Amino acid sequence: MKLTLNGSTRLYFVVGDPIAQVKSPEGMTAAFQAAGINGVCLPAHVAPEDLEDWAAGIRRMKNVDGLMVTVPHKIAFTGLCDSISDTARFLNTVNVVRFDGSGWHGDMFDGRAQVEALLKNGAVLQGKKAIQAGAGGAGTAIAHALVMAGVSELAVVETDAPRRDSLIERLNSLGRAKVYAGTSDPGGFDIVVNATPMGMKEGDPLPFDGDRLTPQMFVGDVVTYPDTAWIAKAKAQGCRTATGLDMYAAVRDLMAAFLLEGKV
């Protein structure tokens, strides 16, 4: 497909720190152009201490229609939106922001995308015991989505104890599943998900004790490489998997529909 790029092109940024790992510039640009929208997605490498100033500058640009938000800005960006969805409010995190005449509206699709990736690859969630590492922006959303998808138990592994405990308390308030603090041992669980950045860098430790994985387990990841060390270990242990690329494909479609609402 030929890329349309001219003075009328609408801009969408994906903002994070680091940013080199993201797939959104290519994938989202293709989605916009396929929908007949003259738009492109551009990477923005912005440090946490510069995020507010950067966002203020973006607000002044007349040809920017939206943002995608990745680590570590998903929580911080909630305070920079004019309005957010009920899901984003419960999670206190956003991963996409649409600009329209009423301001900046944020939503969060990471959780739905991970659940879609798991289900598409054959996982059964209803009534199952799940454990996940990470309670940051993506992790919070995934934990919420797993509970809403019907898991019976969810163990959360997170080094930031106050953040972990706050998430556990909020999820237990829904009355849908037993949610509690977990450990690095995935033994006894059906669904094992890495919702941390572990695996983005060569030499990163595994999020769980990989030797405790068994073929009956289904393993997920959020890191957008075809086979992270975590996914490779899971496959070696005989587990079925959903990769970060599987999740990205799902979140790309959800975000594109959100950003193009009313345009196509």
From TrEMBL:
<keyword id="KW-0057">Aromatic amino acid biosynthesis</keyword>
<dbReference type="GO" id="GO:0009423">
    <property type="term" value="P:chorismate biosynthetic process"/>
</dbReference>
<comment type="pathway">
    <text>Metabolic intermediate biosynthesis; chorismate biosynthesis; chorismate from D-erythrose 4-phosphate and phosphoenolpyruvate: step 4/7.</text>
</comment>
<dbReference type="InterPro" id="IPR046346">
    <property type="entry name" value="Aminoacid_DH-like_N_sf"/>
</dbReference>
<dbReference type="Pfam" id="PF08501">
    <property type="entry name" value="Shikimate_dh_N"/>
</dbReference>
<dbReference type="GO" id="GO:0005829">
    <property type="term" value="C:cytosol"/>
</dbReference>
<feature type="domain" description="Shikimate dehydrogenase substrate binding N-terminal">
    <location>
        <begin position="14"/>
        <end position="97"/>
    </location>
</feature>
<dbReference type="GO" id="GO:0009073">
    <property type="term" value="P:aromatic amino acid family biosynthetic process"/>
</dbReference>
<keyword id="KW-0560">Oxidoreductase</keyword>
<keyword id="KW-0028">Amino-acid biosynthesis</keyword>
<dbReference type="InterPro" id="IPR036291">
    <property type="entry name" value="NAD(P)-bd_dom_sf"/>
</dbReference>
<dbReference type="InterPro" id="IPR013708">
    <property type="entry name" value="Shikimate_DH-bd_N"/>
</dbReference>
<dbReference type="GO" id="GO:0050661">
    <property type="term" value="F:NADP binding"/>
</dbReference>
<dbReference type="GO" id="GO:0004764">
    <property type="term" value="F:shikimate 3-dehydrogenase (NADP+) activity"/>
</dbReference>
<protein>
    <submittedName>
        <fullName>Shikimate dehydrogenase</fullName>
    </submittedName>
</protein>
<dbReference type="GO" id="GO:0019632">
    <property type="term" value="P:shikimate metabolic process"/>
</dbReference>
<dbReference type="InterPro" id="IPR022893">
    <property type="entry name" value="Shikimate_DH_fam"/>
</dbReference>
